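Fold this complex.
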Amino acid sequence: MFIFSMISFSAISYQQIHPFDPLNPAEFILIKTILHNAYSTSNHNLAFHYIGLDEPDKSSILSWQQNPAANVPPPRRALVHARLDKQTLKIVVDLSNRSIASKRVYHGFGFPMSTLDQETVASVLPLSYGPFIESVRERGLNMSQVVCVAFTAGWFGEKVSERVVKVQCFYENGTINVFLRPLHGITIVVNLDDMKIVQYFDRIRVPVPKAEGTEYRPSELKPPFGPRLNGVGVASPNGPGFKMDGHKISWANWVFHVGFDARVGSIISLASIYDLEEQKYRRILYNGYVSELFVPYMDPTFEVYFKTFLDAGEYGLGQNAASLEPLNDCPANAVFIDAYFAGQDGSPVKISNALCIFEKHAGNIMWRHTETDLGDEVREVRPDVSLVIRMVSTLSNYDYILDWEFNPSGSINVRVGLTGILSTRAVPYSHIDQIKEDVYGSLVAENTIGTHHDHFLNYYLDLDVDGEANSFLKTNLVTKRVRDKISPRKSYWTVVKKTARTESEARVDHMAGFGSSEYVVINPNKETKVGNNIGYRLIPMSAARPLLSDDDYPQIRAAFTKYKMWVTPYNKSEKWAGGTFVDQSRGDDNLAVWTARNRKIENKDIVLWYTLGFHHVPSQEDFPVMPTLSSGFELRPTNFFERNPVLKVIRPQHVNWPNCTNHH
Amino acid sequence: MFIFSMISFSAISYQQIHPFDPLNPAEFILIKTILHNAYSTSNHNLAFHYIGLDEPDKSSILSWQQNPAANVPPPRRALVHARLDKQTLKIVVDLSNRSIASKRVYHGFGFPMSTLDQETVASVLPLSYGPFIESVRERGLNMSQVVCVAFTAGWFGEKVSERVVKVQCFYENGTINVFLRPLHGITIVVNLDDMKIVQYFDRIRVPVPKAEGTEYRPSELKPPFGPRLNGVGVASPNGPGFKMDGHKISWANWVFHVGFDARVGSIISLASIYDLEEQKYRRILYNGYVSELFVPYMDPTFEVYFKTFLDAGEYGLGQNAASLEPLNDCPANAVFIDAYFAGQDGSPVKISNALCIFEKHAGNIMWRHTETDLGDEVREVRPDVSLVIRMVSTLSNYDYILDWEFNPSGSINVRVGLTGILSTRAVPYSHIDQIKEDVYGSLVAENTIGTHHDHFLNYYLDLDVDGEANSFLKTNLVTKRVRDKISPRKSYWTVVKKTARTESEARVDHMAGFGSSEYVVINPNKETKVGNNIGYRLIPMSAARPLLSDDDYPQIRAAFTKYKMWVTPYNKSEKWAGGTFVDQSRGDDNLAVWTARNRKIENKDIVLWYTLGFHHVPSQEDFPVMPTLSSGFELRPTNFFERNPVLKVIRPQHVNWPNCTNHH
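Structure:
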């Protein structure tokens, strides 16, 4: 990452910018300038915590989209969350006329997303703090090898919330895998507005786990190495099969826009698929992104209890996006996109290769059949190819691989991969037989407990199935007894379809209808020739229900985990399942609260919120770095098309490895 | 497929044959000869229904495996299921001394797997059957365009079972997709032992759905075609990364044997992984295969009620394996294996390219981390590669893609893909508004109902985690309240581990512990250095519970679907979850019955039986051929290794696309 030098405003030309394009460096600088003029920083303490595109009104986007060439795009606006003299500001900046469109002071609970700069400053405070230096000395450790990390503090019922983080420290000496070497027992509370240490705790003295075995850099590893994987060449000599026009992607029968936001990371917008029969593009997904990510740890002791992170709203999935490594994070045929976000001072910060896009040739079969009941055997097979949009978000120890995979069949497969480093606690034990207390995790190595935890991702899915007006349909499979002796068969199942009229009717419990229901977003105003409602259904790939008590503070704040699916009427202001200001939030502004109004959702522009969960009981394989654990879900057309949309697919031409010497 | 000419016995050399190698053509001919000598076919009516490898005693395999070069392999034997003069014979042939080791007449319920020859003969009988010819004429159809298919009849409480199939017919005229053109209403019952029609029903007259729109051959499709997929080259210039020694595969850190059986298809045996730390191979899976596949249709009317197929035991997943199409069924870098099974007369029948093996370069990430809390950013990423063993089994209309995927991390990912043609029922309706009765399915096209149905695959998984003596551990995540105010946190979850002592304790209901349990096969006699029991856990990817009533005949026969997981003590005779002779079986010999003995399973050689289910409510996209719908499960090491087993993986060398013109 590097800070930008000034860019002239003339760089901005709105005709070229897609309304969903992320804010560009010139725009960030313009916003910074406008706000610095409004709040002279000489006599104000101004910090930018979030600057993102203020989503244009849906109606204006849709009318513009009718003819982007001719129509004027909707006004370009930015949403700004800032701290000004210990107050939270919500500002909307109009970039078209370079003015402040609206501003208000937020007086509710919770604080904006943290800034990387403040996290950094807070994490170095202890290094010059007497009592901490003393604690380190008493432990016989070398101060120069200590690194500290600022963790959000959550909310646990306190009446007044100072804006604080809890800083904990780790020991580098001999490894870069510091998360496996905690100085367990020391917690430093830092007030971020005053940027000073307000509380200091040194409660427990337990040896720092040893560095040996924690490294993952090849240079630091001893032989033997292995296993050896075979080299392969993948290439598209005709170039990539997809076209990019700025952030607009077209591939096979798909068109969509890939955005980027400091808070939620990658955003898929205006995804439409070309219908060969109707000879036109048909709308599916207006907007889709990870709206929140809840990671509660299951150790209630003083040093860990507060670790109940809402990573998107507290840290930002986008501003923590990792630069992707060609050939390793994404295959040889990948194309990369850089991303930008605003630093604390408003200047644009670049993340190189924040996203990658590649055609996935996994050797899957799109469809096939061998017909053997006729005289001669007939066989037809179509190999599958898909297009993947990948972002990796690294939130201190954990790395989240976030894929959107588009299939020509109309399916959108969303995949999440968990890898990175466990959050651990130091203990004196080298064998589980020595453990007589509850250590709230697994002994994954000597003196090292991998703490039990969860990962709950909530996906915001504004499906517009062939238009905005949609309904949420529950298709329940119900056992029937066979009556009036039509056959010796005694039972069968049939489907009972129920359209959810209100938000409460739409909610899907993690257990309810499990293994015997389908969940479909339909367009009640359109049907196929034979009369089926056209729709898309969500097929989960796994399941984990929240296990915290409903009355526990983290669960109140992350109440969106309570249900697997929620449906709300589209509301521009309801973007993030955990609420707008989730740092130290109190659960008074989130998906659970919004839906309590129990609004009508039938034949309306609706949003589906899907919660994908993982429980994680760490195992030794997760040490010192965790092999990817994956899950996800599929959005699959269900009577959206008149028939198989890839029946007439044109097979990828097979490219032979050239018959000549190749150069490694 | 083609029938073999005689092969001299001298072709057989037992030192070269791995004890798990499938029977080879010479062996089939030897078996045929031995049995023809025993039962002179001049005065006997002898038909071979199943000839497979008689699995050697596990103890003898394991002792042989200690040093395959020096030790003599266990005696080579074949298990034969035959029909002799309307009786079922179970014969074991000893190939080493060319004799019959044992033979007995089976007097229980149920019949052996059907033979392709008998299915074919039965399916042509109607074509020369007066009443049927009359029915076809009355419908104004052209007899020369009629094709019939024999369907197993199931069991529905009748006291006496004749060995019958129910033949139903389809209309080809203008399409090869005959399953979409049923002559609905006509059912012909054929006695297979007498090979004659014993009952004839022409109950309903409904128009045959039109051919238009049913084709899937490009030659028969009209433009426009699309979408167009981009060509890509995939090649391993250094050759495939795996070695094949007959049916023995070694790749990366894996070694295993790939077998083939007429009934269950591909079999993975003796799978072990090389442990870099212990510098030795460690055992994981002794044997794994699809032990049964239950496909009940949900239409109770006379024409459909009996369609409750047990595809493995009734039809044979192996003898119905499709010949895989290079570049389309498997990618360019795949290697293919032919397979053989015994025809009805005992002669070997070849299936070319019955299996394929390929390295999968899907662009996944094996593990990664970006460390940002230190001065300089550190990034380590390892791309993933896996090895796939694929078989496609085509059971008349349906195609099952059955993959075993081995990952260097120690995970075995089992994947099932459903594609092919729907089983349909003809109706007079062209729009759902016309439908006033229950049609037991979805109107997927004019006059065509895609019938509701399920697919339940049961996987036999004889895990030997670092040895035979294993236990089945349920790890339940349980919510705890925080006591004695150690923090303001109110709750957390912890793990409660319970070892199943008996078969009844081991069973896992489809709903039980859903989303809050882990299921691990551990070795209670071995532990890691820090004391964790080494194990492997099964992670489901989806779920569908059976919806038939417990007292319904098909559910009694397929009772293995009742639970998601079962555990039994290893018993050589318990191979197939639906029982041995499942055609018209009565559920008196299957997994549910065996486990009713409630045997002890703790610290024993145990077998895990996993049921993977799909409910299928057809949609129009499934017409005329269904885009693949996938699910599966993961077997993942859980404290099997001391640490991440791919920490020191040697990255695949990237191979550049040669810098020279390539030839298409």
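The first strand of chain A starts at residue 46 and ends at 53.
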